[in-house]
Amino acid sequence: MGDRRERLSFLIRRSSVFQTILPVFSRRLVLTWALGFALLCAGLGGGAWYAVRCDMRDYLDRAKASETRPREQFFFACGAVWRSLDGGQTWQRLPLDRPLSGVREAHLAVDRKPGVLYLAAMLSRPASWACPFCAWTHVQPTLYVSTDGGVHWSPVYQFKSSLARSTRFVALHADPDYGEAAWVIIQQGDYVAYYGSNTAGQVWERTCVEESADSVDCDPPETLLDYRFKRNHPGGDDDLR
Question: Where are the domains of the chain?
Answer without folding.
Answer: 1-44, 56-232
